[in-house]
Amino acid sequence: MCDVKKYSDIYKEIAKLNPKDTLQLVLESETEEEKDFYEMVGDFLLQRRQKEVVERNLF
Fold first, then answer.
1. Cα dihedral: 41, 45, 47, 52 (round 10)
2. Separation between Cα atoms, residue 30 and residue 36, nearest integer Å
3. For the chain, which residues make up each domain, given as ranges?
């Protein structure tokens, strides 16, 4: 069984990242797999922010 609280805490920390943070993580990744992961995280966070902007009619 996984530690749900631990992963929930990790999610909350990741959700605080800004685009510069995710770029830094991508650029400093040690493996291609790690780079892909951080790129997906960055895309997810961007999509979430875009959704918020659309929902609030700010575009």
1. 160
2. 11
3. 2-54
Helices (H), 1-59: 4-15, 19-27, 32-55
Q: How many CB atoms lie within 10 A of CB 38?
A: 20
For 56: left if phi > 0, alpha if psi spans -120 to 50, otherwise beta; the answer is alpha
For 17, phi then psi, to 5°, come to: -65, 145
pLDDT at 58 over 90: no
Question: Higher confidence at residue 33 or residue 58?
Answer: 33
Neighbouring residues of 10: CB distance < 8 A, sequence distance ≥ 6: none
pLDDT digits (tens, 9 = 90+) for 15-50: 999 999 999 999 999 999 999 999 999 999 999 999
